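User: My instructor asked us to take a sequence, write out its structure as tokens, and then describe one feature of it. I'm not sure where to start. Here is the sequence I was given:
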Amino acid sequence: MPSVWMIVASFLFACMGVCVKLGSAQFSTGELVFYRGFVSVAMMLVVARVRGITLATPHWRLQLSRSVSGSFALMCYFFAIGILPISTAATLSYTSPIFVALLLALFLGERLRWPTLFSVVTGFTGVVLLLRPTLAAGQELGAMVGLASGAIASLAYISVRELGRAGEPEVRTVFWFSLVTATLGLGWALAGPLHIPDWRGAAIVLGVGLFGGLAQVAMTRSYRYGRTVVSANLSYSTVIFASFFGAMLWGDKLPFSAWVAIGLIIASGIAVSLTASREATDPLK
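Assistant: Let's start with the prediction itself. The structure tokens for your sequence are:
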């Protein structure tokens, strides 16, 4: 079930990316980041009230780490989407699983067996192949910022896992992340000209917040109940959804190499899930 939650989150994140791409022609990156956080804060306040969940947290250090790193990763991702094709931006952003694996092994002492590492590398190879590293002139900054988004997001994913293990409800974690995102986004937005949304713009920013908030809940649930590397690897599927959306909405054509890359990514996710399942039942582990 945790794997299903990550697939759902990936689809919703891709939908959010579509809204960001559409909104980048009308709003600044700071404004989009603010709306992303503001709408999600409102959503989580309603959900918390209905479910009777208090938003005060005893794990404020973990919440702060997750919120700040996640917010900066989101800023980088939104900036990259405004410059790059949506599939390229998503590809660079979703290099985070390889950074997650490295962080777990180097700093948290988690044992990663060779089958799992091989599957993660296979998935990353698929992402690189899908990227087809032929950037147009003027897109270099977007590419570097997009890659930075993936690296920073890995820190947020580690915090999400620890918050889940600490028993923090998904609603509380998403609320604090969204609040920090809205605050940082507002500060960035106020540094430049503000744009009043028309009906189309209002629908776009509402989509950014709704899709993003629901995706965060699904992602947090996946990391809480699943194995970190498995959830992180399955997050690659956002690249697949983004590629399809790019083809449908912006006419991005997928060459044969891209379809091969998609196959590698899917196979990698399945392989990691199976490997993790075997390790969980291994009496010697």
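For the description part of your assignment, you could build on this observation: Residues 199-225 form the longest helix (27 residues). Try explaining in your own words what that tells you about the chain.
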